[in-house]
Structures are given as structure tokens and as C-alpha cells.
Write a structure and sequence with these properties.
The chain is of the alpha/beta class. Helices cover 29% and strands 25% of the residues. Strands 1, 4, 5, 6, 7, 8, 9, 10, 11, 12 and 13 form an eleven-stranded mixed sheet that branches. The protein is elongated.
Amino acid sequence: MSARPDLAPPSPAVRDLLAPGGVLRAGINLSNFLLVTGRTEAGDPVGVSPDMARAFADHLGVALKLVPYASPGLVADAASRDEWDIANIGAEPQRAEVIAFTPAYCEIEATYLVPAGSPLQAVAEVDAPGIEIAVTRRTAYGLWLERNVAHATLVPSESMAEALTDFIDNRRDALAGLRPGLLADLARVPGGRLLPGQYAAVQQAIGTPKAKAAALDEIVRFVEAAKASGFVAGLIARHGVEGKLGVAPAA
């Protein structure tokens, strides 16, 4: 894995804003299996997302406390409750009302799974009258669909497992999701297939509550250096998610 980016230390004011008391609290979305790929014996999350948080804490010269959440919606909900100082989460306009985001550090392709015999052949064909799309509520790709779907009907569920069950049991026309997750879901959908291409690239970024937005430039500096130095690519390789996660382009 490439060395962590070599950056000049932040100002004391930025360090105190982001890590009062010398501890950086990092909100971690446990439901993204590409960014959180396991747990330690103590139960702490392991993966690209925790490692990015750890590297940033090292850059600040402070200790790190991981604050796990079961879903990205819960991470966003906590932004105004002073539960975390940074969070690794999909950057979406709805979340930007309470969270200041860096540019993305990695991207994940989002597409659709369709059942056996489906006439749908392309992503663009899914947004049509009469089409029902099963989707997980408050995910980054679900929020994108809420903003952009004009003709199809979104049928939200509270979890990815519930969305898959709804898709199967209620014979929805498509299941929205991240391509790596949908590939795993194919095992439960005989004859199903993933549509080629993508309707969106979910961009994983680092956010900080709007109350700490004065420190955003420092976080952006770290993210851009982490991409340029090969550090993010190294994390992707280390955690075995090459071909599933991609390094986001420079801002």
C-alpha cells in the first residue's frame, strides 16, 4: 500500500475544531460492504472507510474514535447532534443541507437487476410509466433516483435485504443497487441479469457537520493528496475490492 500523503500539518485552530479534546470522531456507515469489509476481534470496523479516517486522524496528530451506524441515513441524521466530527458517506445534495462534503475519494457504479424474461435491456429504459423499481430508502443511489426518476415508480424498503425480498416476492420490474451488491443478489434471482452501464456513480466522500465547515478546506487537501499519492488505490487493493471500487478523479 502506498504511503500516506505527505502534507504539512494543519493549523491548531483546524485541529481544535475537528478534534476537540484531541480525539477525532469518525462516523462510519456499516452497510456499505465495499468500504467496511470486516471487523476486528474487538468489533471495530475494518476497510477502506475506517482506514481513511485513521489516516486523517494521523494527519491531524490526534486519536481516532470510530462511531459506527447501521445505515447512511442514520449517519446523516447524526450530523446535527454532534455525534461525529467527520463521516465517510456518499455525497448527495439532500445530505449537503447539514453536511459539508469534500470531493469524492472513490466511486461505486449503480445499476439495476431485472428478473428472468424482463424486456428491459438498458438503464435508460427503466424510467418509464408502469415500471416499479425496488430500492433501499436513504441510500446514496436511492436519493439519486428520487431526484432523477420522472416516470417509473420507486418502491422503497428500509434495508437492502428487504428491498431484495420485495423485488422477488412482489415481482417488481427492477432492483436498484450498487453493481457489486447486485452481483451477489443474482444468486437469489434465477435467470436474472444486471443491466449494462450505470445510472449513477455513487461518490464516497468525507463530510463534516456544517458547524465545522471552516475546516473543510483542510479535509479537501487531505482527500486530494490521498488520491494523487496512490494511497486510496492502495487501500482498495489492500482490502480486496479492486474492480468494485474505483478511485475518484481529481477535483
